[in-house]
Specification:
SAM-dependent_MTases_sf; Methyltransferase-like protein 13; Rossmann fold; nine-stranded mixed β-sheet; 28 strands; disordered N terminus; alpha/beta; single chain; 26% strand; methyltransferase activity; multifunctional enzyme; methyltransferase
């Protein structure tokens, strides 16, 4: 026998509830948790002297539990005559001060200001089943009646799932009243064996009746942790916080089963001391059944953006190498300090067991894995705000036991390093024996301009080998400056190349010059301008350039084409670039998309404008570097001349090593997988 309604609209029907309680009998029915889970919230806001109205009481045991624990001035109402008679008969002897009355909560007969508190466990959710006009009218009538019957300073406590439409109407009504609103997450323990367990978390909304006070901002608070109450700037911020808590609850339910092979689940863990998430976790399941069930992998600080830890493919590779059925990859977020691995284990051990696979023994000892014992270090350098990309930070990170890097990161997309450079510490004197290792960043560093942070930049350098010669003057337009790693590298290795760098964001130019040692000179000029207009203006002025490099990312994370923005690869602009290039000129395009179809469409478009094209797909990235020339494929200097390219690359390699002894750039190796487009 199915005791759940066949249609959600039945929840608001008195006839449904009459049938429900006749079939259910005298067995208490607890929709949203039982008294032990609600106890601390109820007794926090209701005292024994209070007169309390329980609306839609049903045959729940909540009122009798409250009565037996000191809250005895209880008035219970319900629209079902059957359940009211059942409850009266059950409690009239042992709980004589508790009353039961059949009454419609939308039209109550109690005098104004009669109750100190009103408790609603699931009744709002039962009534507010849709946003149809009649439903909203009924709910508004209920809110108005409860507001009327509450005393000043009285509290309306609602136990609810807070679905979107419920919270929308609830918050709108009481925000218009100007009453303080506080939301608690009810810590209920779900029964994994119960197939009918709720798929949503339960919340307690506490609303306090106050006199209207014009120009007084509404008090809006949320309790994500029992020991802390956070006050928000406005009710509009509640929705995102509620969604975060709902998401975490649903994720835990998902993780009670094995994840599909192509699905990885991410979530964040907060501490009570900060609003910034302390840990970011990604759960990866193996498609195979493995004897080792569960492990935690701690990513050292500063390495969270590497391919192995930041991409689905990389994490799956990590999981396969570790050999565990389920691996939780944990990133240590900036803005927090982490003492050592043992402290992290102690902090996470209790929480991560909530993410264990279903066949993991409850008392199993969970291994914590990492790369050695080095947790890495972060040192904040600068922060600011860009009009184009929002707030940013510049930070130095120390990884791999002492390697130091400087990074620019935009906070709206913290998983992506916008630009990076390797730093070299300037040592004054040798450390004396017994002297302690430094705790902070080195006092003085220099930028290693022979280091390029990405394989795609190495490929861009290698692409210059398609030009007739690098021993004569070469003119280049670079759209997208970043931290200036590429032009700084070219300055030292290939002094015959003149670069006009175009960057839309003035803040990026400022960061590049101040923190990444970009040094404009007669061979390197920087323009704060729109790259599209800059190229068009050069063509309109009759100018030509030997190379155009497009390395500009999209500011919209929701689009399939991450780099470049779509306007840079439409037919009109590609044709404009072709007009700008000299007869033996070259377009180099950094193309990034997780959608293979979108990437292929861009490649086809480029090839329709440029007869000779080649692509280089980078193994551990979503980037492809595209090389395009207006030369015919049959020309001796075309992109398909592998013999000539191999010789040029060896010569370039020699020049690079002469300029930068410890450079990480290998142009010969990077071009081994070059594909010429037919």
């Amino acid at each position: 026998m199915d005791l759940l309604p066949s249609s959600h609209s039945e929840f608001s029907s008195p006839d449904y509830w009459e049938r429900f309680f006749k079939r259910r009998g005298k067995i208490p029915f607890e929709w949203y948790g039982e008294y032990p889970q609600l106890h601390h919230i109820i007794h926090k806001y209701i005292s024994p002297s209070n007169t309390v109205l329980v609306v839609g009481c049903g045959n729940s045991a909540l009122s009798e539990n409250m009565y037996d624990n000191g809250l005895q001035n209880l008035v219970n109402i319900d629209i079902s005559d059957v359940v009211i008679r059942q409850m009266f008969d059950r409690h009239r002897v042992n709980r004589p001060k508790m009353t039961f009355e059949k009454m419609d909560v939308t039209a109550m007969s109690y005098p104004e200001g009669h109750f100190n508190a009103v408790l609603d466990k699931g009744t709002l959710d039962a009534l507010l089943v849709s946003e149809e006009e009649q439903v909203l009218q009924n709910v508004t009538a209920m809110f108005s009646e409860i507001a009327r019957c509450l005393r000043l300073g009285g509290r309306y406590i609602i136990i609810s799932l807070l679905q979107d439409h419920v919270q929308r109407h609830l918050l709108r009504f009481f925000t218009n009243m100007g009453w303080p609103i506080r939301i608690h997450r009810v810590q209920t323990e779900s029964n994994e064996e119960n197939t009918k367990s709720l798929a949503m978390p339960v919340f307690a909304v506490v609303i306090t009746k106050l006199k209207p006070m014009p120009n007084m901002p509404q008090i809006v608070e949320v309790c994500r942790f029992e020991e802390r109450i956070d006050r928000l700037e406005g009710v509009q911020y509640l929705s995102a916080i509620i969604k975060d808590m709902q998401y975490y609850h649903i994720v835990r339910q998902q993780l009670s089963k094995r994840l599909p092979g192509d699905q990885q689940v991410s979530l964040e863990l907060h501490s009570a001391a900060s609003d910034v998430p302390r840990y970011s976790l990604t759960v990866v399941d193996s498609p195979k059944v493995l004897p080792n069930k569960f492990a935690i992998f701690i990513v050292p600080q500063g390495r969270e953006t590497e391919w192995l830890f930041s991409t689905d493919k990389g994490r799956l590779h990590l999981q396969e190498s570790a050999g565990f059925q389920r691996l939780v990859v944990v990133a240590l977020n900036r803005g927090h300090s982490f003492e050592n691995m043992e402290a992290i284990k102690a902090e996470l051990s209790g929480k991560v067991m909530e993410l264990a696979p279903p066949d993991c023994p409850n008392k199993a000892e969970i291994p914590f894995l990492s790369i050695g014992e080095d947790l890495g270090k972060r040192f904040p350098v600068s922060e600011g705000e860009s009009t184009a990309s929002g707030r940013y930070i510049v930070e130095d990170v120390e990884i791999n036991g002492g390697q130091l890097f400087r990074r620019l990161i935009f906070l709206q997309n913290q998983g992506v390093v916008q630009t990076e450079t390797r730093l070299m510490e300037v040592r004054k004197k040798k450390k004396r024996k017994g002297q302690q290792a430094r705790e902070g960043p080195p006092e003085k560093v220099t930028v290693d301009k022979g280091y390029l942070p990405s394989d795609y930049l190495t490929a861009v350098v290698a692409g210059l080998g398609f030009l007739p010669s690098l021993d004569r003057p070469v003119s280049c337009v670079l759209v997208g400056l970043g931290g200036g790693a590429f032009p700084s590298f070219i300055q030292g290795a290939f002094p015959q190349v003149s670069i006009e760098a175009v960057e839309l964001d003035a803040a990026v130019v400022d960061v590049a010059t101040k923190w990444f040692d970009l040094r404009p000179d007669e061979k390197l000029t920087v323009h704060v301008a729109d790259g599209l207009e800059f190229v068009r203006n050069l063509v309109a002025s009759g100018c030509n350039r030997d190379v155009v490099i497009l390395d500009v990312d999209s500011k919209d994370p929701g689009v399939a084409l991450s780099c470049p923005p779509a306007a840079f690869v439409d037919l009109e602009f590609l044709s404009t670039i072709a007009k700008l290039l000299t007869d033996e000129g070259l377009l180099i395009l950094n193309l990034a998309s997780r959608d293979d179809q979108v990437k292929q469409e861009v490649l086809d478009r480029v090839h329709s404008v440029f007869p000779s094209c080649a692509r280089l797909d980078l193994e551990e990235d979503i980037n492809s570097v595209v090389f395009a020339s207006t030369k015919s494929p049959s020309d001796a200097c075309c992109l398909s001349n592998n013999e000539r390219l191999a010789a040029v690359l060896k010569d370039m390699e020699s020049k690079i090593k002469s300029a930068y002894r410890d450079s990480n750039v290998d142009v010969v190796e990077i071009m081994e997988n070059l594909q010429v487009l037919e």
